[in-house]
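thought: fold this chain, then report.
action: predict
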Amino acid sequence: MTFQQSTYQQHPFEDQTASAWLIKPAGLVALTVFFALVGWIVAKAGIIGAGAIMGFGLMMVYAVFIFRFPALGLYTAVLLGFLLIGLGRYVKGVQVGLGMDAILVLTFLALFFNRFHQKIDWAPAKKDITLLAAIWFGYSLLEVVNPEARSFEAWFSGRGIGLYMFLIVPMTLLFINSNRKLDIILYIWGICSLLATIKAIMQVKWGVDPWEQGWLNEGNYKTHVLFGKLRAFSFLSDAGQFGANQAYSGVMAAIVAGSFRNKMIRFFFIIVAISAFYGMIISGTRGALSIPFTGFGLYFVIKKNKLILATGALLLVLIVVFFKFTSIGQGNAEIRRMRTAFDPNDASLQVRLANQNKLKSYMASRPFGGGIGHGGVKAQRFLPNAYLSQIPTDSWYVLIWVEQGIVGLLLHLAILFYVLIKAVYLIMFRIKDGVLKA
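observation:
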């Protein structure tokens, strides 16, 4: 009798079990040496040494899991998107932003090793949005040789503007191929948004911690403490990012809540939506108000339901009337600040317009901008005396314009509008799954 050779190809990380390895003499010796080394480190370094060993151990466990389940890297990136920048307040002198680069690169490595004996199916990532992400990344790379740029370090600090889209778009298309995997993203997002609001409430009610106070003392109090009132920034980079993040998290959660039949899941996302909108309010970020208006407005149109569209439009009109034509709640500092977003004569708005007028004359002869990382007060870290680093950019699109010029801004807007228009078309006419449509 002959036996046909098995075609099964063993996974490179499943060659043998740990128990089989430990019964060998070499395994026992290695284990003994390992525990002796751990004991020596703890004896010498105390709690810090023990913490370092535990951290290293957790990293090893994480590495094993990510090589088994590469999608874990994408879930981690969503989590780090909330936590990483704010972590810089507590860890000085360390490029915490490199953590995102590291996890994304590690995820792609894990994908290659996970499919060690298989051909990776790149078909899901071969989409027009991947091409657009590559074009945007290519333009960002060309900004390195922008004749106006003065610092490669500044460009490197702003690398994420093109790099992260280039890496995350194909990664998402490869990994998120089922409703269940998309749900995991939404749960992580919702939990992080909820925690962000809780942290912001703690800042408003009980004050900031010593590290956050140090960050405010570096000059950030000028934009985050107005008339003696703190603009909450939670564990994100600043109040502006926190407010915008919570605004779109609230829109996302409110829409998703209506798509789940499970009452507990629906209740969870309703809580996320309420907390997110409250976080937006205590951030004092007036520009974030535009996100619920445009987000819900588009949602009502896409639903193609006349009753929902009419009800939604009426609700949005009532909100505008509340803020613009009444003084209800004027004694509340947050409502009072939000109301100024509807006042064209607001002093803060006039300052922003004045800054944009200064930039307009300077940018007229610089179609490719001043260089990535060179715009706004953040650039003072690299270029303390440069013209562009003295003028706040105040908004994302002004930042794109200043750093990458009118050419970069038009390219950026063209990509966003292409994605928006195609996404609306797919949702309205192609997707039939009601949950996925929501």
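thought: worth noting. The two ends are 59 Å apart (CA to CA).
final: tokens above.
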